[in-house]
Amino acid sequence: MAIVVPKLKFSPPQILAIGYATLILLGTVLLMLPVANTTGRALPLIDAFFTATSAVCVTGLVVVDTGTFFNGFGQSVIMVLIQIGGLGFMTMATLLALVFQRRISLRERLLLQEAMNQGSVEGIVRLIRRVLYYSIVIESVGALVFTVRLAFDMPVGQAFYYGVFHSISFFNNAGFDLFGHFSSLTAYTADPVMNLAAVLLIVLGGLGFVVLSDLADLPRKKKLSLHSKLVLSTTGVLIAFGFVVILLFEWSNPGTLGRFGLGGKFWGALLQSVTPRTAGINSVDLTSLHQATQFLLLILMFIGASPGSTAGGVKTTTFAVMIGAMLAMMRGREDVVFFRHRLGRDRILKALTIILLALALIITVAMVLSVTEDHDFMLILFETMSAFGTVGLSLGLTTDLSTFGKILIALTMFSGRVGLLTLVYALKPKKDPEKYRYPEGKIIIG
Amino acid sequence: MAIVVPKLKFSPPQILAIGYATLILLGTVLLMLPVANTTGRALPLIDAFFTATSAVCVTGLVVVDTGTFFNGFGQSVIMVLIQIGGLGFMTMATLLALVFQRRISLRERLLLQEAMNQGSVEGIVRLIRRVLYYSIVIESVGALVFTVRLAFDMPVGQAFYYGVFHSISFFNNAGFDLFGHFSSLTAYTADPVMNLAAVLLIVLGGLGFVVLSDLADLPRKKKLSLHSKLVLSTTGVLIAFGFVVILLFEWSNPGTLGRFGLGGKFWGALLQSVTPRTAGINSVDLTSLHQATQFLLLILMFIGASPGSTAGGVKTTTFAVMIGAMLAMMRGREDVVFFRHRLGRDRILKALTIILLALALIITVAMVLSVTEDHDFMLILFETMSAFGTVGLSLGLTTDLSTFGKILIALTMFSGRVGLLTLVYALKPKKDPEKYRYPEGKIIIG
Ligand SMILES: [K+]
Ligand SMILES: [K+]
Prior knowledge:
Chains A, B: The chain crosses the membrane at residues 15-33, 45-64, 76-100, 131-152, 193-218, 230-249, 295-328, 348-371, 377-395, 407-427. Chains A, B: This is Trk family potassium uptake protein. Chains A, B: It is a multi-pass membrane protein. Chains A, B: It is found in: Cell membrane. Two copies of one chain form a homodimer. By secondary structure, chain A is mainly alpha-helical. The first copy, chain A, has one domain (3-425). The first copy, chain A, contains 18 helices and five strands. Chain A is globular. The model of chain A is unreliable at 1-7 and 427-433 (pLDDT under 50). At the A-B interface, helix 11, helix 13, helix 14, strand 3 and strand 4 of A face helix 11, helix 13, helix 14, strand 3 and strand 4 of B. Strand 4 of chain A pairs parallel with strand 5 (440-441) of chain B, so a sheet runs across the interface.
């Protein structure tokens, strides 16, 4: 997989990681500038670094309030970082190449394959062209809806600016908002237009471009790929499950859904069920949720959204494969079968590896933070999970983080975005050759 | 696997589950009797049921204090329940058969195979004979050491009674103690004799009789089985890891290790590292531990001890296989290799299934309890994990449990002891025949 370039030798994952890191550094410098915020003083390096990482990794954890601290220039920098980070640095670079009609080389296709996590090189270029197209169309429609709705509450110019910012932020599952004082969508808990638009943008952004592309081809091809079927069904089940449990747990909680009528309860439960996959906006006060509901969000954040999307987490397909493997074992079957197709054994191993690596990282980070930060463990675990899943939901720890804590959470966001496996391969790109096979041994399990 | 007996048809797992349930009911009746406790009044049904389940499932979660509430008769009932539950109902039945020189039939061997979780029928009978031998020898030595040590603190007769009770309780990883007022070993934090004896009893009990048998054969055979090597190395790594992290986190915590010298710190860290596998005794106040340390105990309790032992949890080998699968994946290898032997794919699937089923059960129970019990989620999760792993450590929830909570925790202990897979097979004993194999499909993971 290693590719020779003049003098230096980088693997695609390494180039990907370096690309994201460079973008974060650039963002840090811009956000530090006194002209980027409303105070006129320079933002401390660590806070600028944290904000840039959060934007590039489309997380949405914030140490300063985006709406009140940053001015138009600062907010625009964040918006651009979100858009580039969301579409993916590598995808973006290729899009530029496409725009300039340059021929795509095999090497560039391999880089793209890594960035999009696609199984085959074929069709990658066509997919990338569509990424730009879909993003523009969906984000434009979203911006239009938000603008019309917000024009009832604010001047049309501001409504348009808000519309564009939030459409980009929500579709890229970035979780940044301009509503001020860390309020996110809490002023719109029962608002059907805001919620419907937000939910659709988040879900579409979280399905992944491969699935969107497949859906667009549906009228012509009359069938979906196995991957798309699995993503759509898993996403549907997760949303429905979260919706029902949140509704059940929070129905009469005066701090959250209890004070709303049926409409507010419906939209509140739906948005909070959708947001851990991995938007990071919220329309109720998360700290007022029952601890069981917070724990449910924790699990949903861990699962996250789908591969090749703008979102983080271990991914819906990984989760589905684990469940499929469990069901197969319980039914005494040898194969993991979805929609009349069995999965290769390597898929199960990869899913397992991702889940274990993610768990190990999250637990380690949370334990270290519980030593450096003087806060409840649940709060710390929630924040760590949110950072790893690039979700952006917080029970309030972000603004209290020590400098060390900010750096650690920023690095966790980076790992979550670039992908653990990519990072592991980047650190250890050479495979040892498998010399010979050992005889099979017997052990007792469970 | 289903075996025909006159008129009724039970699979070995079903017989196993029924055996444990019968023992629990018998214990409940005995512990309810007014003559079993020091108050002279009948213990409420639910509390007797909970205590009997806790004893049979060698868990050690208690709603009434064993040392002060029960009298000699009640404590003896608990001790017998622990011994029978620990050695395993089925093992015990066969031991009786052996004692009476009855021939062991194939059917009885199959039942034993299920109970001992052994891969082959061969050697089972020999193993069972050893179970009784090892238990008597190890428990006798343990009782002697405790008696001598405790004779310095109390009359010799009481010291002997305490010695026998605690040796049985600790070797079977039951976690019951007579020291009163839920104090467990907190009066002996820095005591070398008490701690060394306790640690050895717990570790030996948690290795599993297969490994003990293998170790006894070591001088003659000069080699250990793959299973024993894996159990011993995983147990060693877990104890060392827990020891170092606990020492690090609690070194200067005035509520736990901070008030002790080097000896107390050493023994305190060691005992608390060993006890989640799955003894359930404690020598420091668990509620005073840092939350990060409590979380570490939570993870260690989830892993638990080794298969075929007196302990619960998902088991050390299950954990080792998961880690092995992850490392193989990361190194680009196709096989999971331990000690120059590769593992069958079915081992990985079984390990994965056990872990996922356990997680699903624990999370579901904890979420239900967080609705019915008015307590911190961490407390509830800890209690649920402790019940499932049949560990018996508690942050104090047990005595506050509602009747519903007691029933749910008792059922969780039962699932943890009988084994989730056994339970699942017991509920669904018939395998669907695998009619044909589906073509392989492609999806994107992570
Ligand atoms: K996000
Ligand atoms: K126990």
